[in-house]
Amino acid sequence: MGNDWIGRRALLRGTVAAGVVTVVGAGTAGAAVPGFYHPFSGYRITGTWQEHLDRGSLGGIDFGMAVGTRLPAAGGGVVTNTPYNGTGGHTVTIQHDNGYRTQYLHLSQFLLANGTRVGMGAVVGLSGGAAGAPGSGSSTGPHLHWHMINPSGARIDPLVYLGSGAGLPKTSTEQDGVPGPVMWRRAQNWLRLEQGYTGPIDGVPGVNTYAALQRAMRAYGYGGPIDGVPGANTWAAVQRLAARWGYTGPIDGVMGPNSWRGFARFLNQDKYD
């Protein structure tokens, strides 16, 4: 097995401890505002804050996206759904524990019941905005409208609040070979974008994270079950991925610092911020 080793028992212990996460606290590692992140950094802004103000709106940011796009929570909190909310159409509000609120407008579908507590990154609804469709309000084309409300009740620009729209931080695992919450948050965001992961971006890998990882590893030779319990075959596939990003060690299914460095180089791509 060589010197590229980390205890598989420790990895599996983390799997069991985390379980299937449906209600979690918000992650904090490395965020511009602890417990928050920008879930829509990969989408084109089609309406700026100032453009909203110029046409008489109280403010907001529009992101162009297809109807039915999953909408992750920018931060943890309690969900309230407001159907047919005037010009905003179907609106979901997340009441955060620090007194701030996030609002997403023009939804095509609510996914959670009122009063559901979610963690950062949990999917709270599906985008909409198609002209004339139920829930679109006054929208004339598919997009998401996002704004926040501060504890005083004033609408604020979420990108200013989050630090000019900064996404997830880069993981230091690329340098030190030690996996941690930031690396796993980036992994969860990658899996959200490309593999259908719908859990929180909390940096705590559980069954749902590992199942999405196993789906992703089909492209790297993994042929085992999608059961969310990673073993040697899962990790060997991860090593094959890491080999494309500088890992030169054995494909033995035993993750160690060099394996994690290669995996982290892959995750540190800007598109997974």
What does this structure look like?
The protein is of the alpha+beta class and 273 residues long. Helix content is 27%, strand content 17%. It has eight helices and eleven strands. The strands form two sheets. Strands 1, 2, 4, 5, 6, 8, 10 and 11 form an eight-stranded antiparallel beta sheet that branches. The protein is elongated, with a radius of gyration of 20 Å. The N terminus is likely disordered.
Task: Sum this structure up briefly.
This protein is an alpha+beta fold and 273 residues long. The chain is built from eight helices and eleven strands.
Key words describing this protein structure:
alpha+beta, three-stranded antiparallel beta sheet, elongated, eight-stranded antiparallel beta sheet, 27% helix, disordered N terminus, 273 residues
Please render the helix and strand layout as text.
Elements: H1 8-18, E1 45-47, H2 49-54, E2 61-64, E3 70-72, E4 77-82, E5 91-95, E6 101-105, E7 107-110, E8 117-118, E9 123-127, E10 143-149, E11 155-156, H3 158-161, H4 173-176, H5 181-195, H6 207-216, H7 232-243, H8 257-267
Antiparallel strand pairs: 1-2, 2-10, 3-9, 4-5, 4-8, 5-6, 6-10, 7-9, 10-11
Helix pairs in contact: 5-6, 7-8
